[in-house]
Amino acid sequence: MTAYPGRVPQQAYAWARGHPVMADGLLGLVLLACSTDQLRISPVTTALAAATVNALLALAVALRRRATVAAFGMVAVLGLAQAVFGFRAYGGAAVPALQPTMTDAAIVVLLAALAARRPRRESLAGLALCLVGSGIAIYGWAFARSSAGLLLLAVVALSATFTAAWVLGDSAALRRARYLSLEERLASAERTADLARTRAQAVEESAARLRRIERDLHDGAQVRLTALAMTLGEIKETVSGQAAPAGVLALASQAHQTAKDTLAELRDLARGIHPPALDRGLDPALHALTETSGMPVSLDIVIAARPSPAIEAIVYFSAAELLANATKHAGASRVTITVRSTGQGGVRLTVADDGAGGALVTDGGGLAGLRERVGTVDGHMCIDSPAGGPTIVTIDLPGHA
Length: 401
Ligand SMILES: Nc1ncnc2c1ncn2[C@@H]1O[C@H](COP(=O)(O)OP(=O)(O)OP(=O)(O)O)[C@@H](O)[C@H]1O
Ligand SMILES: [Mg+2]
Prior knowledge:
Layout: H1 8-18, H2 20-33, H3 44-62, H4 68-85, H5 105-117, H6 120-144, H7 148-240, H8 248-273, H9 282-291, E1 297-302, H10 309-330, E2 335-341, E3 347-353, H11 366-375, E4 380-384, E5 391-397
Parallel strand pairs: 1-2
Antiparallel strand pairs: 2-3, 3-5, 4-5
């Protein structure tokens, strides 16, 4: 990979983001290196004490992500000790090992880390502590030096530095919170899309399963029952032309009738599961439905593309229930069924009658079942049925589940 000099800061930043522990350790070492001149203090015990103080400050920097509060506590205690004992102040002698050095920049780093990683309440307390420490240090300087200008500069510089560190850390925390909430929103949108996909799959699969059951009934039980009814019919014919034992003809007739009734019931059941005409599309299925209706129905279907099998089944069963309602409850003279394509491949079913009106969704009723069924595919049902009529029920469905 080619290295471009202009990109070095960017690359260093990217490396630091990728290796946070090493980057913090390195920063701690750099800060420690800023105080090596303290090793020249004599006696050697004082130099060692000074080195320990600076090493602890550097260690806090290295630990700023893993133990932010503890590390900040450590630098705060060391900083306050330096502010109180590090100057020739208050009439006493300064403690050489506690004299401030460049490594004290660790306090600024830790304050920024506190603001970036901890709640505002805690980081504001940290900022207040730093400002109090600065105040104590400046008070110490005031004893040691008399230049008002320098003191004013120190007040401004220290307060500005600590405040800037806090603001930087706090805005990083805000950015992270915003990023996390965006991530959460994205994750929840993904979950919703997943759920919609799974639900659509379940609806289509169940439509396909019902169709298979209807096929099995049609090709299996229905065929055998038809053969049985025919055989019984033949037996009845044969027996009726002969001098058979008493009661045999009646039994054969009864068996024949039962077989025919069962066949009719099975056909109705199969049609209720999945009308075979639906395999050829909504048009023939709805025509077959209206042809068997006891009242005049005008049917008008114009659809651009065939909806999925699950949607076709919902349209069909909705039309059947609404037609049955108009026949049973409305006292209508005619019913109009309209099916139209809507935008984005959807379909709209409208069933209108000129009856008395007053259609209501009641618990356990057919309309309540329809509303539920339509809702499983995010469809919408609207019932307009004022007293005195007319009744218009509109159902909007997507093109697929
Ligand atoms: N087209 C209509 N005109 C007038 N009243 C209606 C119409 N459709 C429904 N209703 C009224 O709304 C009520 C609820 O209808 P719904 O289809 O939910 O139940 P149902 O037809 O009585 O029973 P089910 O559908 O279970 O056979 C009906 O009992 C009827 O009083
Ligand atoms: Mg009904």
